Amino acid sequence: MLSEQRYAMILKILEQRNSVTVAELTETLHISESTARRDIAALDKAGRLTKVFGGAVCVDSVFSPSEPTVMQKSEIMRDEKRRIAKYAASLVGPQDFVYLDAGTTTGFMIEFLTEATASFVTNAVAHAQRLAALGRQVILIGGTLKGTTEAVVGATAALMLKEYHFTKGFFGTNGASKTAGFTTPDASEALVKKTALLQCARAFVLCDHSKFNLISSVTFAPLAAAAVIADNCPAEFTGHVLIADEKSNDTSLLEKEK
After folding, report:
1. CB 148 within 8 A of CB 124
2. Are 171 and 182 a contacting pair, CB within 8 Å?
3. Given pLDDT bands bounded at 50, 70 and 90, which one contains residue 246?
4. In whole angstroms, what is the distance from residue 162 CA to residue 240 CA?
5. In whole angstroms, how far apart are CA 8 and each of 5, 14, 21, 81?
6. d(CA 135, CA 28)
7. pLDDT above 70 as % of the chain
8. Residues with Cβ < 8 Å from 120, sequence gap 6 or more?
9. 257/200 Cα distance (integer angstroms)
10. How confident is the model at residue 185 (pLDDT cuts 50, 70, 90)?
11. Roughly what angle, to the nearest 10 degrees, separates helices 33-45 and 3-17?
């Protein structure tokens, strides 16, 4: 099928539904996920639709930001997330005091951790349970529990985080943009991410390639605030990104100081 034909079909679907997900396009058009994302990006650049997390909406639609559940997100880009997580886990060193943000990619890190002397603080209940089961020293911060992401969020959590000074922090994101930075749909979650990141000597954002050039509702940090660990990225992001498993990485990013 020619790209112009796919574009017409995508726009027809949007005309009927006002929104569409990448998964729906792959099933309806019998195309790969990467092709669906490229088509959405091309139509977004042309001003024919608006690219959002996980899909697209009509240009004239009012987009109300929503977020998939942890279960749903764990199945999206699973192999890429695991590769990113394995690389990130290798950066945890002896005696590190680590902040581990809520999220599926940060969660995948836990199975790859090998440094027994590191200790962790997290706002994810599931992360804390898994770390404790493995015999790791872990602190779960207090606050309001957000159901969709199973993250502890809000002002109470942010105040608690201000007492800590982390050697390294690993964060999830819903979008990474050169203009908007790292973004997330929820203001209370953004507050916790922002506060924790400011307390890290070195911060890393784990970001699969589908999240580049996406903008969610709330910025929690500018792009320059952390090194990005990704499976791949657009050319314009290469100065900020460590590619998981790639030997040619710019190791200066590993020394990035807050």
Report:
1. no
2. yes
3. low
4. 26
5. 5, 10, 16, 32
6. 46
7. 88
8. 98, 99, 100, 127, 131, 136, 137, 138, 139
9. 9
10. confident
11. 80
Task: For residue 223, list its beta bridge partners.
Answer: none
Answer whether residue 146 shows pLDDT above 50.
Answer: yes
* Residues 237, 176 contacting (CB under 8 angstroms): yes
Interval 68-91: pLDDT, tens: 666 666 667 789 999 999 999 999
Domain ranges of the chain: 3-57, 71-255
pLDDT digits (tens, 9 = 90+) for 92-101: 999 999 999 9
What stretches of the chain show up as alpha helix (H) in DSSP? 3-17, 22-29, 33-45, 70-74, 78-89, 104-109, 125-133, 155-161, 187-198
CATH class of 71-255: alpha beta
CATH topology of domain 3-57: Arc Repressor Mutant, subunit A (1.10.10)
Report the pLDDT value the prediction gives residue 63, as an integer from 0 to 100.
Answer: 46
Q: Are 29 and 37 in contact (CB under 8 A)?
A: no
Question: How far apart (Å, rounded) are the C-alpha atoms in residues 223 and 167?
Answer: 19
